[in-house]
């Protein structure tokens, strides 16, 4: 078998790996909280305004379309993760179904996604935190609150600080960090529910006219419903972080499906209600350009105290997004290191049952990005990486059903052809709806990744040294 087409045995994924394994300490409530914590974040707090500016009130359709594609991807993830309960997520599934080269591209794309999301959210948290402290009369020097891309800036220390705090939580142990995450998720969801309760009494159906002022849009068109959906897609993903916790789940055959599908259902319903309440309360043009649209709507309604509470809850609860994605990033690195595609020393497990080396390594990388880089234009690259991974999962679902229909499946995605097709086509259309520079830098990133693969990883892969372990 050609080295780039080597496939990992699915049966081997159920066997213990060399050295200590991650501790199985999580159950479905932890996974549900992990998924909701990852999904509900800066996306709904800020992107509802961006999406409304592109699509008008028809941003409701954009939310529904992005939710549909992510729901189908979630069904595919649920089936594959229960079949292959191992750290690595879409990378691991691609390795077993599509071969080593595709797996490398997917893993490399996931590294891009998770790194940029963690860094971007840390910078976003820094902005909320600095503003919150300013409101309390505490002014931090500009040199220590923004990177060198801003005049007078040196390093964004608050962003580095919050990454360090979340890393410390992860090093304490998976169950401990998951329990705190669940508490913070409750705070975050309560804030959104409070927004809906306050905004709904001011609902005015006239704000939904004209409903679709910029049309439906199409690939390569940077306005309309499709363009908004491609951006709003950022607000939905995060449930894939649950699949990276497969090895640490007590009953993966049951709990993974509950966590993945349950978090998507909860968040899709919550997003649609929040979007309807926001548009009904105020005309789209009044909040489309705001970096904090929900808080702005409340202030315009004379609810200043509630607006401050929304901002405070963001400062308190946004670290749940950091925790989920930093958790997932370290497990992606762990899976690739175990397979020899990255240095194997990254696969060491601490006495507390966590991948301490790779967690600290990941934290250093994302903290460096958050501390000194401008991420406003690069953040959309996270979407490109996610779309590549989701499309690969859709392909894996269909291929594995056709290649190995008799294999035991603890969870079976219904109408697998339709689920897989919607996932693949939706991801391709969304990718084509991204900005051209985003598509270009995504290709540059993967071009660099292919160089790494052909120059180092292909020769050092576990299957290159132990071809008997290949499928």
TrEMBL record:
<keyword id="KW-0472">Membrane</keyword>
<feature type="transmembrane region" description="Helical">
    <location>
        <begin position="414"/>
        <end position="434"/>
    </location>
</feature>
<feature type="transmembrane region" description="Helical">
    <location>
        <begin position="306"/>
        <end position="328"/>
    </location>
</feature>
<keyword id="KW-0813">Transport</keyword>
<feature type="transmembrane region" description="Helical">
    <location>
        <begin position="90"/>
        <end position="111"/>
    </location>
</feature>
<feature type="transmembrane region" description="Helical">
    <location>
        <begin position="260"/>
        <end position="281"/>
    </location>
</feature>
<feature type="transmembrane region" description="Helical">
    <location>
        <begin position="179"/>
        <end position="200"/>
    </location>
</feature>
<feature type="transmembrane region" description="Helical">
    <location>
        <begin position="378"/>
        <end position="402"/>
    </location>
</feature>
<feature type="transmembrane region" description="Helical">
    <location>
        <begin position="220"/>
        <end position="239"/>
    </location>
</feature>
<keyword id="KW-1133">Transmembrane helix</keyword>
<dbReference type="Pfam" id="PF13520">
    <property type="entry name" value="AA_permease_2"/>
</dbReference>
<feature type="transmembrane region" description="Helical">
    <location>
        <begin position="58"/>
        <end position="78"/>
    </location>
</feature>
<dbReference type="GO" id="GO:0015171">
    <property type="term" value="F:amino acid transmembrane transporter activity"/>
</dbReference>
<feature type="transmembrane region" description="Helical">
    <location>
        <begin position="150"/>
        <end position="172"/>
    </location>
</feature>
<feature type="transmembrane region" description="Helical">
    <location>
        <begin position="349"/>
        <end position="372"/>
    </location>
</feature>
<keyword id="KW-0812">Transmembrane</keyword>
<dbReference type="InterPro" id="IPR002293">
    <property type="entry name" value="AA/rel_permease1"/>
</dbReference>
<feature type="transmembrane region" description="Helical">
    <location>
        <begin position="31"/>
        <end position="52"/>
    </location>
</feature>
<dbReference type="GO" id="GO:0016020">
    <property type="term" value="C:membrane"/>
</dbReference>
<feature type="transmembrane region" description="Helical">
    <location>
        <begin position="440"/>
        <end position="456"/>
    </location>
</feature>
<protein>
    <submittedName>
        <fullName>Amino acid permease</fullName>
    </submittedName>
</protein>
């Amino acid at each position: 078998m050609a080295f780039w087409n080597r496939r990992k045995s699915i049966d081997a994924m159920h066997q213990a790996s060399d050295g200590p394994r991650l501790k199985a300490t999580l159950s479905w409530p932890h996974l549900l909280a992990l998924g909701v914590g990852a999904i509900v974040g800066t996306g709904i707090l800020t992107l509802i305004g961006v999406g409304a500016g592109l699509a008008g009130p028809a941003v409701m359709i954009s939310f529904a379309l992005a939710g549909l594609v992510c729901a189908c991807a979630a069904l595919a993830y649920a089936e594959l993760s229960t079949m292959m309960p191992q750290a690595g997520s879409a990378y691991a599934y691609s390795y077993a179904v599509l071969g080593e080269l595709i797996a490398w591209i997917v893993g490399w794309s996931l590294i891009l996604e998770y790194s940029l999301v963690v860094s971007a959210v840390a910078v976003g948290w820094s902005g909320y935190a600095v503003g919150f402290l300013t409101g309390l009369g505490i002014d931090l020097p500009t040199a220590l609150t923004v990177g060198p891309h801003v005049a007078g800036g040196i390093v964004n220390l608050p962003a580095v600080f919050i990454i360090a705090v979340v890393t410390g939580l992860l090093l304490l142990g998976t169950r401990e960090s998951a329990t705190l995450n669940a508490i913070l998720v409750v705070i975050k969801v309560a804030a959104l529910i409070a927004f809906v309760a306050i905004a709904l009494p001011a609902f005015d159906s006239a704000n939904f006219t004209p409903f679709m002022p910029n049309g439906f849009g199409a690939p390569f068109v940077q306005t309309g419903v499709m363009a908004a959906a491609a951006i709003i897609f950022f607000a939905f993903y995060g449930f894939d972080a649950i699949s990276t916790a497969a090895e640490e789940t007590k009953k993966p055959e049951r709990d993974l499906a509950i966590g993945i599908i349950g978090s998507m259902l909860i968040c899709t319903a919550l997003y649609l209600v929040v979007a309807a309440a926001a548009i009904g309360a105020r005309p789209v043009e009044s909040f489309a350009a705001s970096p904090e649209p929900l808080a702005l709507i409340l202030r315009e309604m004379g609810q200043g105290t509630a607006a401050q509470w929304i901002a405070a809850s963001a400062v308190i609860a946004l670290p749940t997004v950091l925790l989920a994605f930093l958790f997932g990033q370290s497990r992606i690195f762990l899976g690739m290191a175990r397979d020899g595609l990255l240095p194997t020393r990254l696969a060491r497990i601490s006495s507390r049952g966590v991948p301490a080396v790779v967690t600290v390594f990941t934290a250093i990388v994302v903290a460096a990005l958050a501390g000194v880089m401008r991420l406003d234009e690069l953040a959309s690259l996270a979407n490109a990486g996610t779309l590549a991974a989701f499309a690969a999962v859709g392909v894996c679902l269909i291929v594995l059903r056709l290649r190995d229909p008799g294999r035991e499946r603890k969870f079976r995605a219904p109408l697998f052809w339709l689920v897989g097709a919607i996932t693949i086509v939706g991801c391709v259309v969304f990718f084509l709806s991204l900005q051209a520079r985003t598509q270009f830098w995504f290709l540059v990133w993967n071009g660099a990744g292919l160089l790494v693969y052909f120059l180092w990883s292909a020769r050092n892969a576990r299957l290159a040294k132990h071809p008997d372990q290949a499928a």
